[in-house]
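TICKET: design request
STATUS: open
ATTACHED STRUCTURE:
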């Protein structure tokens, strides 16, 4: 199966790029709707302008096995984020904004280099606020021979308009399903409408790519992977997350229930999230997901 973007005509690809750059002029790329002109390097919530801004890249072997395969997932960490999670494990990148601006051509070269290293996909980590820049670079890379799947690794605070522009580009969507309680989302990530935005975003992703498909090597080629991080005291609201996936997405959704919550950054000063989860809390979440008949629960 060829990646979706290989099939796009020159005209179709250019129209998507032009549309997204136009949206940067009064930025509504994400649900923050800051309205600043990022093409003039005005800065909104994400504090990024119009040039690609990355922290690091390389083969990553800590992702789901369906992405890692034999040679790793070709991960590119994009600097900054449109959330402000107080427990972010990558806070140096997402909130302290460590990284450097590079040209569109250089970002395309990064993608091609990851392919040359044998990576099975290009894994875009925190891409939401830089989708226009990514697409411009991706087209350069495609025209130079890139032909491996694109993974959109997101916190799911994505606008529907932007996601619709990505149809035919993204092969594998990998959103977080962080919270089902907006008060918690506001307190921990400064997102008062997270649950509604996340649900709409994941429904659109599922519409575009469907359930996860793997090849005869067990490596993902297309589809949806949902990640859910279990938080202390069930702050994530797992029950409503699983109910949503069961009733509005698919019982065959590939679901990674994650147990690696580790308090860091500002979480250490918040009593509710200043500890790791217990084994019992994690097992309770797994059992709950099974009660909703979710059939593809991923565990290493």
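STATUS: resolved
RESOLUTION: sequence designed for all positions
ATTACHED SEQUENCE:
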């Amino acid at each position: 199966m060829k990646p979706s973007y290989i099939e796009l005509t020159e005209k179709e690809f250019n129209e998507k790029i032009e549309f997204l750059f136009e949206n940067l002029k009064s930025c509504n790329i994400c649900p923050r709707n800051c309205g600043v002109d990022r093409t003039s390097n005005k800065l909104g919530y994400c504090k990024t302008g119009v040039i690609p801004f990355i922290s690091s890249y390389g083969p990553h072997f800590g992702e789901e096995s369906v992405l890692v395969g034999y040679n790793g997932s070709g991960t590119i960490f994009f600097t900054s984020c449109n959330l402000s999670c107080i427990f972010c494990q990558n806070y140096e990148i997402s909130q302290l904004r460590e990284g450097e601006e590079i040209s569109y051509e250089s970002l395309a070269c990064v993608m091609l280099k990851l392919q040359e290293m044998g990576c099975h996909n290009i894994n875009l980590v925190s891409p939401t606020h830089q989708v226009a820049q990514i697409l411009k670079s991706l087209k350069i890379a495609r025209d130079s021979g890139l032909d491996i799947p694109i993974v959109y690794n997101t916190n799911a605070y994505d606008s529907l308009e932007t996601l619709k522009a990505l149809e035919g580009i993204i092969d594998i969507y990998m959103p977080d399903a962080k919270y089902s309680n907006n008060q918690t989302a506001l307190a921990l990530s400064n997102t008062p409408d997270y649950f509604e935005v996340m649900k709409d975003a994941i429904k659109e992703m599922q519409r575009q790519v469907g359930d996860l498909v793997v090849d005869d090597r067990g490596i993902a080629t297309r589809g949806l992977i949902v990640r859910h991080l279990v938080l202390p005291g069930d702050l994530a609201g797992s029950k409503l997350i699983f109910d949503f996936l069961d009733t509005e997405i698919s019982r065959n959704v590939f679901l990674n229930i994650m147990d690696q919550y580790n308090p860091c950054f500002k979480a250490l000063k918040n009593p509710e999230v200043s500890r790791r989860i217990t084994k019992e809390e994690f097992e309770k979440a797994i059992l709950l997901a099974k009660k909703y008949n979710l059939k593809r629960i991923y565990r290493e």
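CLOSING REMARK: The chain has ten helices and ten strands. Residues 194-209 form the longest helix (16 residues).
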